[in-house]
Backbone:
């Protein structure tokens, strides 16, 4: 039996950009062909981007997607790649139709034709996924032959649930299993994926390829990390995380091996998290036509980390920082902000808010929280004004802890189209800042974040001498309670049973419940945990339940 | 066989308010008992309110709901209602568990016990519903006997899909079918419901009761309209729409009849729509602890209709209108706003924005759209300041047409916790205004909306002499294209084929696509159509697809 070379193509499609996605597939097949590939396998819905959400219910979108696949098949032939088997994901029209009208499909292209199709069986409809809403389930395994090898194909969730076509792989006589995926990043998820792929390979005694997408799409970041295991589950090759990649695997005389050098370098969680956040922000900008961002720089840790992420994503010259001091702003808030901008090579300007705040105060009678909110809202108006006038995307710098307890001013510091650290709890913001500075030191570069922004007590600086801990418990305690209440869905009683003080728990959970209306109006931002605010956690605003 | 009296209990529970909901059930059973009822049937999830969304995935919430049902069963006995069969809906723990851990259930309570349980089989997961996400399906019909009659029970979606336990009703030997529902209002949906119930009754040759909830829950409004048909599908009795109600039905010697007078008065679509909007707003306030609302009064039709709805919902004395004229504001914008407030008996104040706008303009260099947005944002800051200082809920007055094309300033006129006419297209806003004024005239009252607000050309008044039609097609054309693109999901090609001009269609659909990020940050508001922005239509922000 001749050698068969498989290429795992880890690419970054854009939702709805059918032509550009097809062009990118063709370019990747050309690279794979140059590397001697016989079979090239792409990620889930690579033709349309993923997830397409309710676009899947638009007749014209599904038609155009199918037409793009046929066009792709023809273009492959005319470019001289007609003998390669190319496996792509896309929506296809279903015969059974209700709200959903399409399957989530695989097409195997060869010789200008679709030589086989598979429709995803298990449709995830939990966490951020709404696939039972948007797709019709398929129920038949697909196998196809190439060079004497028999390949079986399945899609993503099919290997996370038991039963369905995946159970038929051994019986089908397949020699290789191809799993195509759109699996978003979560801290620690890479290990779970590997285990699943290993189990699958061992169960069906087939070498198994796991091909994931890479790139940001709204609040999801696909991290890639595509991989190949042999029939015993041993890792044969692994793609990079957070970048496009192409991995070649050879099948010859019943053995499977990596073709060419492709070192596997797994990085730690902080590296992964930083890179997920950077990629999520970069792709949101790239795919939505923004070249630059504007954000308020308070001298605090949140805006510093957001600015550093933006500089890593877009280059410091495309980051526009604005210091907006009030009468309550400390000197260090201004000097730390300026220091940060200079470390990042970012643009920097100062716009004091006193004149505008005074104009409102002279016209309206506001006190207490209304007066504190006013300062934040004047800053929001300034940032949006700059954004409108200069065309930058506005970043909002709130972290997950703030969002959880509603420690922010709606239409104030929450303004913006993207929230880079929306899913990063406060204690992790600090760890990321330290990690990023250490990384810079290891690389012989200037640490981007001023030390004082990391070490000083956090403060909103909306009244004299205010610090966050005036109104909130210490952040390590707060984050621990939030982890239990939000991520693990524990009740007050259960949290108290694990050792937290009841009053504190009740205070925090009440704040979380009350902030639901604000979160609903918040910007999207990259999900990095198993329970991000947004599509992961869908609770009513009107909700009298007290845990 | 003795006479059996059935009571259809159409009530308004609040999500999460377990104790209050149980109290309300007990009070309703007491009323039903006083009217001689033997069997009392409530709506879907009456114990917890509906929809509970991801609360269904919280272990503690499901446990407390089940405990509340058992407590209810005991309380019924201690209040002397132990011989009545009481049918209530609630979540119950499922044996099979994944993301979802609960069934959407019916319990039949009698003698202090649960004498039977049914678990919803068809879990709607389209439109605004996420039940496949949140519930585990049941698959067995429940029947129970009372007074020699055999009752079968099913839940809502079970009768909208074919197959499942509902198909077993005839075989089960049931004499009466009880369908309990949480079916939100949409214009025209009442007719479709009636047809379904009639078909069900005829298919299984059983008199059939359809019991719906009533009340507002976030963006849904349950309109009630519970009804009873006989085995031939003829309507025997029908509850009021948009209010709580109790309908008695007698079964005697094989015949079914209404007990006592309960006239069926069906009202037209505009009446229904106005009442849906009023109830949605009133319940959002009541259930979230707001006694009053604040909104900007521009003299235009949108704010006038919102203020009139608020006055109908909460009383004019609880409506706080603010006129915020700029240098571009016409005289009529102020006089019409004042006239409106006086007609409604609403509170009224004027807060010119010139000082604040000037303070920003002197500090920032803004022109064009940035300058127009600035005016809207200064107004937003004023409204939120008043809301924070005085405790009113801020209403945002944008209509569905504006939301569709993004004809609004984010963090400006879009600020607010509730959007009363979010799902009302501009042409319907005018029709509702006219209808409400005519209604007032019929009732011998002052028409609430100044005639000039209805007749003048709509304008945002953000620059001299501006009218909406400078930048948008005429509203009747715009609404017709939006109906095709948004509600009917037609493509540009399909819209052009129906006779619209291609340039106009492309311009409008592009505006709709580009405004997705703004809509995501918008306030919730009552759904009245089959395709409301929000949970009905879930599209990516990052989306390069052009129809």
Residues:
């Amino acid at each position: 039996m001749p050698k068969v070379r498989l290429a795992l193509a880890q690419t970054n499609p854009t939702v709805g950009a059918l032509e550009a996605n097809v062009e990118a597939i063709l370019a990747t097949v050309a690279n794979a062909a140059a590397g001697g590939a016989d079979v090239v396998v792409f990620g889930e819905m690579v033709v349309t981007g993923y997830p397409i959400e309710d676009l899947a219910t638009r007749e014209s979108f599904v038609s155009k997607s199918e037409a793009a696949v046929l066009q792709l098949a023809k273009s492959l032939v005319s470019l001289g790649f007609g003998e390669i088997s190319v496996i792509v994901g896309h929506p296809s029209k279903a015969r059974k139709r209700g709200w959903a009208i399409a399957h989530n499909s695989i097409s195997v292209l060869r010789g200008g034709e679709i030589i086989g199709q598979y429709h995803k069986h298990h449709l995830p409809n939990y966490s951020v996924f709404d696939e039972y809403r948007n797709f019709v389930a398929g129920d038949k395994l697909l196998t196809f032959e190439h060079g004497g090898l028999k390949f079986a194909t399945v899609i993503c969730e099919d290997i996370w649930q038991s039963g369905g076509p995946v159970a038929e792989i051994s019986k089908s006589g397949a020699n290789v299993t191809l799993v195509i995926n759109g699996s978003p990043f979560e801290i620690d998820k890479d290990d779970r994926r590997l285990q699943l792929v290993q189990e699958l390979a061992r169960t069906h005694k087939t070498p198994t390829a796991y091909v994931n997408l890479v790139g940001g799409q709204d609040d999801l970041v696909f991290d890639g990390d595509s991989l190949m295991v042999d029939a015993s589950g041993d890792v044969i090759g692994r793609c990079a995380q957070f970048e496009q990649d192409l991995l070649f695997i050879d099948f010859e005389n019943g053995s499977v091996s990596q073709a060419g050098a492709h070192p596997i370098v797994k990085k730690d969680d902080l590296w992964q998290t930083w890179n997920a956040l950077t990629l999520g922000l970069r792709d949101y900008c790239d795919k939505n036509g923004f070249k630059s961002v504007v954000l308020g720089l308070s001298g605090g840790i949140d805006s510093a980390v957001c600015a550093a992420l933006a500089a890593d994503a877009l280059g410091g010259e495309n980051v526009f920082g604005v210091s907006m001091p009030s009468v309550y702003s400390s000197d260090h808030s201004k000097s730390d902000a300026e220091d940060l901008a200079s470390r990042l090579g970012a643009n920097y300007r100062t716009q004091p808010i006193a004149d505008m705040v005074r104009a409102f105060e002279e016209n309206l009678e506001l006190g207490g929280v209304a007066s504190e909110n006013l300062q934040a809202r004047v800053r929001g108006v300034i940032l949006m004004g700059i954004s409108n006038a200069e065309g930058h995307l506005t970043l909002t710098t709130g972290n997950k802890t703030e969002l959880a307890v509603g420690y922010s001013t709606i239409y104030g510091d929450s303004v913006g189209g993207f929230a880079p650290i929306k899913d990063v709890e406060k204690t992790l913001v600090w760890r990321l800042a330290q990690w990023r500075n250490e990384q810079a030191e290891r690389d012989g570069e200037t640490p981007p974040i001023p030390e004082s922004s990391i070490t000083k007590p956090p403060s909103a600086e909306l009244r004299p001498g205010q610090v966050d801990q005036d109104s909130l418990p210490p952040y390590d305690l707060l984050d621990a309670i939030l982890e239990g209440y939000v991520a693990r869905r524990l009740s007050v009683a259960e949290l108290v049973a694990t050792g937290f003080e009841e009053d504190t728990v009740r205070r925090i959970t009440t704040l979380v419940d009350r902030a639901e209306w604000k979160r609903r109006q918040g910007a999207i931002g990259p999900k990095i945990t198993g329970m991000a605010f947004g599509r992961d956690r869908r609770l009513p605003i009107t909700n009298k339940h007290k845990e």
